[in-house]
Structure formats: structure tokens, C-alpha cells
Amino acid sequence: MSTPQPKATAPIEMPESFAIQTEGLGKVYGKGANRVEAVKGIDLVVRSGDLTVIMGPSGSGKTTLLTLLGLVDQPTTGRLVLGGRDIYAGTPPDLAHIRNTEIGFVFQTPNLIPFLTAKENVLLPLSFAGVRGKPAEDRVQKLLDYLEIAERRAQHYPNQLSGGEQQRVAVARALANNPRIILADEPTASLDTDRALAVVRLLRRVSQTNGAAVLLVTHDHRLLGEVDEVIEMEDGRIASRRVVGQDGLARSQARSAQPESDG
After folding, report:
1. pTM > 0.90
2. Which of 81, 211, 222, 243 could cross-link to 248 by cystine, CB 3.0-4.6 Å?
3. Are strands 18-29 and 36-47 parallel, antiparallel or unpaired?
């Protein structure tokens, strides 16, 4: 049986500064007694250049929301706009191409390709994008250096690396193509404090310098001083949103001047 398609409606008006916008986004699994409403009517805006954290208890819908935003799964209801494109209005764009070129993923487990070295894993998305040779090598080396993957360790295969090293390689791979949107699901869970902060600061730098929108699912309160906004989820809905960080007051005032429906 085919997956139900969200109803196509008129395109959402979306300012250029918005990387992600949803209206009534929902996801239902199963039917009848087995029906589970994992995500319920999410209205969300994520701005280009912002680092946003999603928190909440297990089962609150955080990871499901991330898979919908990353085009890994399709919503049952609602609308999704990425980079100005209303994804399910009319003829859907090439979702695989968008995932490969515009979205960087960091999952709970590294999901590295076991028969490629750490460096080759990071080079792979660049190769798919047609970037090879010295530009690709230089880009990968800068990422690996920042994430403290020594050149010798970069020649090792995933099963020869520690869990923390594998996760840092996965972060480097997600950033290789300078994606416009970065979605990270518990990327620091296996890292010590210093390396966890290094990962989040790298994501912060990418958001600020490249204008990428970063959405990070975490339970890690150590990271909150590095982010722009915190979204709390409960029972598949957005329970609250709060602005944090050094410029939080200015952002709160700016946003209060614009009506938003964020659940």
C-alpha cells in the first residue's frame, strides 16, 4: 500500500531568511488499535543562520520530526517548505537530490561505511557532488583537523575507531558539502564535554558563516549556552520555545513583533 501524500495546497509565502517552515505537519503510523500519532500539527520556523535545539522526553516525537524535515520520511498531513520550495505542493522535486546536496545528517549512530576509511567516508558526499582532487582533500582535512581526528587515525576503518571518533567522522561527513540545512540527532551523546562543545561550536560556526540552519536533537544541557533557540516537545507537539544565547533579548523582541503560530 502506498504512503498517503500530504494534501497539496497553495504555496506558503516564505521570507528568504527562513530555511525551514512547516504548517500542521503530522505523522501517523499504523491503523486502528495500532495507530500512533507520532507528530501532531507542528507549526515551525527555523531561520537561516540559527542553531536550534529540540529537547523533550523519549517518545515525544523529536526524531520523527527530524526525519520529516530531512525528507527521510513523508508526513501524513501538513506542509513543508525547505529553502522556499513547498515540497509536497504540485509535483514533488527530486527529494534524493535535495537530501544529497542541501541537507547534512548526523544520526544517533555514525552509520559509516565499514569498507571505507574515515577520510574516505568524509570524501564520499563530495565525490557525489562532483568535487574531487585537492579542493575535496583540503576541505576534508580542515574538518578532520577541527574535530581532532589525527591524520593517522583518518586512514583507519570505522571498526578500528572508538565510538567518539566514529561520531566525529560522521559530523565531518555531514558538513562536507556545506549544506544549507543540518539535522543532527544526539550527535554528542558519546562525546566528552570538551569534544561535545567542539562539535556544537563547529555547527555554530557553520550556521553563522555559511548561513546554514542547524536543528539539533539532544538531551545534553551542556550545549545550551552555544545555541540560539530551544524547542521543547511533548507528546508529539511543540510545548514551548525559548530564545537563549548572548543576543537572546534582541531576538525575542524581533520575533515578538511578528505573529507566529508555533503550537
Report:
1. no
2. 243
3. antiparallel
